[in-house]
Amino acid sequence: MQIPAPVPPVREPAKKGFPFGNLLKALLALLLIGVVFSKTNFSEVLSLRDQVSYSWLAWTFVLYVLLTFLKALQYHILFGRQTSYPRVVSIVVWQNALSNFVAAGAGVASYLALFKTEEGVKLGRSTLVFLITKVGDLFSVWVVLLACSVFLWDQIPSLHSLVLILLVVIGAGLLFFGATLLFRRPFVSFSSMILEKTRLARMPLVRKGMDAMEAFAELSPSVIFQMVGQAFALSLLYYLVTLGWMVASLRMFAAPVSDWSIVFVSCILQLLSVVPISIFGSLGVSEFTSLYFYEVLGVGQAVMSPILLAWRATFYLMNLAVLLYLPLYGLFHRRSPESL
Q1: Is residue 241 assigned to a domain?
Q2: Are 39 and 128 in contact (CB under 8 A)?
């Protein structure tokens, strides 16, 4: 993402050694996308150009742009409006670009670094907002998964156990988060003591988490509950628009699946994004998982594989289009009276 004027993305500090983790993720992505390619051929993907619905294409793009502005609005509100909204949008654009073209970790690093260096937001505060936002996203997925499972229950007998496990585990996690809200000070003190004694606190990622917990404990109850309420409400709105975007993007290619099926698979994909096994915007992982679950829902892999590959190409093009915001914002910022 970026800020006042076009600013190059902030990169994570150089790490020693070869990044085998990212290499393995890239190989996994190529392997899985290769499996999807094996289910179709390039001519089938190209043939989808003749059946593209341009009205759905327009809706897909509008909703994708709206998602960017909604995520920026969420950050803007949760940070107490202490930064200008256009600047926050630029940060979100950078974060999304790095997450979808590089890795999710790079996107998170840019978010933390840019808010700290350009907006003066403490690392603990930005980490806290990020974590609360993620819990809000998880709450939204839990609500939607529960709703669509009710509608599709008879169609997914082989997935009953998986759905129940997901609902129970996520529900338990949300209850734990609620308990943490109520007893945050003793919880933070106890967690910090354990992490210090086990020397896990020396790890950079754990240290960031501890900074967020300390910032969390310092806030008053009224501020905490207001922040969490806003985060959950905005996350639910954001996720509902995300689902609308997913439906529109598959309708663009006349995918023969019901809206509830798209919503259900989208819930699974959202939960998979929490697991740090993907790269390049979940390339390969998303398509491979979608093939499996759509087949369970009655749509063959031969039908869905070219659609999913075309969807991936469209997804990257839309990310590139949204990047145009950065030079436009930089141009506007230089010409604005406040910058003179």
Answers
A1: yes
A2: no
Range of the domain at 209: 53-331
Which residue in 285, 282, 287 sits closest to 304, CA to CA?
287
Token pair in block for residue 244:
């609308």
pTM listed for this prediction: 0.80
| Domain contains 312 | yes
Contact 192, 213 (CB under 8 A): yes
Q: Please check whether residue 190 lies inside any domain of the structure.
A: yes
Tell me the per-residue pLDDT of 53-79, one tens digit each, with 9 for 90 and over.
889 999 999 999 999 999 989 888 888
What is the Cα–Cα distance from 237 to 63, expressed in whole angstroms? Answer: 12
The verdict on residue 24 lying in a domain is: no
The count of structural domains within the chain is 1
Q: Mean pLDDT check: name the lowest of 45-49, 96-100, 160-164.
A: 45-49
Distance CA 306, CA 310 (A): 6
101-160: pLDDT as tens digits: 776 666 667 766 777 666 666 666 777 788 888 888 899 999 999 998 888 998 889 899
First to last CA, the chain: 23
C-alpha 217 chain-centroid distance: 26
